[in-house]
Fold this sequence. Notes:
By secondary structure, the chain is an alpha+beta fold. It has helices spanning 9-14, 34-43, 63-70, 118-129, 153-159, 202-215, 223-232, 267-276; strands at residues 4-5, 18-22, 25-30, 46-49, 54-59, 83-89, 95-105, 108-113, 135-138, 144-149, 173-178, 181-186, 195-200, 219-221, 280-287, 298-301, 307-316, 323-330, 339-344, 347-354. It starts with a strand and ends in an 11-residue tail after the last strand.
Amino acid sequence: MSDKRTCLYGKHVELGAKIVPFGGFEMPLQYTDITDEHNAVRHACGVFDVSHMGEVLVWGKDAERFVQYIFTNDIAGAPAGKIFYGMMLHENGGTVDDLLVYKVADDRFFLVINAANIDKDYAWITQQAEQFDVHTENQSEHYGQLAVQGPKAEEVCETVLDLRCKDLEFYHFTTIEKDGETLIVSRTGYTGEDGFEIYGTHDYICRAWDRLMQSGAAKPCGLGCRDTLRFEVGLPLYGDELSDEITPLEAGLGIFVKLDKPEFVGKEALVAQKAAGLSRKIVGIELTGRAIPRHGYEVVDAEEERAVGTVTTGYNAISTGKSVCMALVDIAHAKLGTPIRVRIHKRLQEGVVVKKRFYEKNYKK
């Protein structure tokens, strides 16, 4: 077990959660049943402890120019309150991390990074910052974070937490003065459903969690259903669909890579990769049977018994009942409709390449 715990760790133990190591933290995998928690988010409201995520503040004269340089998406001229998804890259195009960039002001940005990558990311960010007139601060120890997700999330945040958020647009955030402190509230999430992410001090996050639990309006949810939810709607997980060795283009995330903007770290490598053509790509696969594909399982050609890729994430999808997976395969097997097989417990299971989105997102329009 890791020795890192979020501010809500004791509350998870009190609720009888199954605790597992994740991203260097001891985190709840589930409280009762992954399927129940998954369905609560799809049909009502669930709440996740995501205090393990990292937060980095960037400010100063060159703040916007610096973020543009380390980030694949284009934030130039965006209004304060807007949020962008994208990646930070190595020079060779591999992914340092995927992250959210919150524009606080023209000279101030708030970066939300993955828990397992906090130390790596911050070291990389500070190294890149040496050639810019900017300041950076790792604020990960200061913030706790809740993700309130599901079709009833807006109602729960408004009534139970008394947070005025119904007018907040998707991928926008606001600051709210509450209980003597300034909260950051964003209309974002990692589930494919409407929802909000709330950043505050550890004390506030603990009080907010208690209110939600006492109300019964939001079901506590663990990392197990967080993964099944994000997977069903085709959202990547760093370490699976993205990594130091997998580029955003190979992951099918080119929409978040603006190759027409000025220089950014890794741009030249991606331009060259796009010009040469991809040799591999992350795809969706649907199996004809009920066998469940798992991370690391071998993907095999439909006719010849030769490996053509590897499963990155796989489940029997809770919302559809189908056995599906995402996999990194060679480009010759990446076209939609391509017959393909997955080796599961030494047997080859028949399947076909499909879109990575196995279930439609339900964000607020």
